[in-house]
Model the fold of this input.
Amino acid sequence: QGKFTLLQDTRTDGSFLVHHFLSFYLRAGCKVCFVALLQSFSHYNIVAQKLGVSLTAAKERGQLVFLEGLKSCVDLLFGEEEEQSGQPSPLQFISESASNLKALFDFVRTSLAPAGSDSWKGPVLLVDDLSVLLSLGAAPVAVLDFIHYCRVTVCSQLKGNIVVLVHSNEDSEDEENKLVVNSLCHHSDLILWVEGLATGFCKDVHGQIKIIRRVSLELTAEQDLIQIYQYKIQDKNVTFFARGLSAAVL
Amino acid sequence: VFTEEDTYGLYSNLLFKYFLAEGVVCGHDLFVASAREHPDNILKELPAPLLDDTRRNELGEEAVVVKSEDSMKIAWRYQNLPKMEASPTTSTKFGHYYDVSKTMSPELFQSIKWHSFYLPEELSVQPKMKTCNMNSAYARLLESIQRIIYQEGFDGSDPQKKQKNILRIGIQSLGSMLWGDDVCSSDTPEDIHSLTKFLYVLRGLLRKSLSACIITVPAHLIQNKAIMERVTNLSDTVVGLESFIGSERETNPLYKDYHGLVHVHQIPRLNSLICDVSDTKDLAFRLKRKLFTIERLHLPPDLSDTVSRASKQDLAESAKLLSSGCGAMAIGKKHLDF
Done:
């Protein structure tokens, strides 16, 4: 409850974790607000079906609020004036010069606000992926403010969870991205860091995942717990195993 | 699909034309945008497709030559391994082949509809969409693409249209100075978000319509690497072409059969948790008189007197570059065919 999980990927694609968390929380009966900035709804829907969850059904019963960033952006730029239903678009910052993500935050807040008839367990905010906001013109400080506001509302007030995906590269020259990632790392309760293998491409081991539990944040003078596993992604499943013990080797 | 141009733009132009030519042969509609040369000229230079029988003859010749097998004496363990195929198996027919020495005949164009966007001609028109601080050339291009998609019904907005077709979009040299973007000429460009915003909106347009797009970008000119990283994240497929012209590799005996290297930086992972894996990541291309081929980088046996190769360092570096991308590669989707 009230946890902030950071998904970080380096030299590989960590989106399989996003799919996992999406279906995990939906199956657990939580109300999910999914800010999907990089892919279309049908992409997530098809993968979720393989994992056993139907996103369309979840949307219909009100369990899932899906913000399809790509569609929203196109509607914003090419939509006609009559379509303004009084509610500003969540991605308004793209067309305005003031780069603040307040409209996006308002969207998140209203979608996760508990309605009287809801019987869902805790609210969850899922973002895929945060680095795109920087590409769209938001300043790093604005992005961090957005996350901060979301944490206050979702984690503290509503006792929900937040899961955010960011990209990071060790020799990246993208300073703004590094700033955002470092800041988020310091504030996360759990970091799942997915990396491509340092030795290069391998057919049987797609990468390595580092699980960092930030126990040090709890002021009990303990060190962070770090666990490292390797993984292989299959069509409907991801298998994890200890380093060096891939099925191909044994 | 995102192609990083090679230094002189020769080979990336070729790929660009292949993409469009494939569209013509498959009966797709085309949209060609360029700031450098008029799309009419681009379309006149598309390579002619090879008809089935000529291709089969060529393959037949090559297969015959390979047949002669002497049994190996020293490395006999390798005898049982299948012969290394330089090019992907040609048994499955996927796409078409083209003859680079001939241009496509105009009759083939008559069956398809094509639209063009030539920046110098479009400068007089004011964009109607909210430009949102984007470079006005990009804004106009987006508007033009959106208009075509909407008018021709590629986004399914016209239920009357029975036959669904695909729109192939080709954008040449995006990000270069000709588009009014100074991303290529300075380290701290005036508006670093124009290119990425453009790509994001384009991605949105492509996702909601039946279209595919190839963009070539002079990546070697973009000095701000952060922009290239963001652009890579926003694209589905990223392929870099590195030609040997003018570099020290031109005279390197290792690379004497080839004209350049192909770096596949990223492949799409759409509608699935995984993407298709290919066995090799070392690809090189060469331009023969008639064909442009991409094949596995084959190192000739090291028959020199020195114990180790002079350019082992070089190879190790390029191998690192190749393998540190996303963990897998895909069998080409339609728009990667030649």
